[in-house]
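We now fix the convention by which a protein and its fold are recorded. The integers have meaning only within a learned vocabulary of local backbone shapes. The record below shows the convention in full.
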Amino acid sequence: MAMVGSAYSCYFTLGYMGGYLIKKKHRLHVFAFAMSIGIISSVLDVVGADILLWGYPTKLFFMVPPLIPADLTVIPVAFSLAYHYGKTWRRYILYIVIISFLFAYVIKPLSKWAEIYQKNNFPHRLSFIGFILISLIVRWFLERVLPIREYN
């Protein structure tokens, strides 16, 4: 049930973002990028919690990690905005480094302080590097699979 609600909130957030912040001709690329990032971050979140790299002391539902809504909304939206506005690789890398820094060194420690997230054996620098690598790989892959984006 929580996964369905998270998926709907992701579609709503991306729809809202797509309607106001992204031109119509770029929506396919941005939506594909956001969904790819959302799926990868959700899977990695569950795998990391299962192998005890991190944990969640407070859970609403036993089997669903509490950060699944963030994996399906906040993370994809932030990185897809970087994807959309980072038209060159140089600018895109700058944007994802800033976003990755915020997620790894600001949001995660705040989540730990609020006792939502428990870091067992996973340093913040690996989160920082992971966010960067995942977003680079997804953009590289989508540029080869989807038609070329026009920036006019």
Summary: The beta strands are 54-55, 118-119. The radius of gyration is 16 Å. Confidence is low (pLDDT under 50) at residues 1-7. The first strand starts at residue 54 and ends at 55.
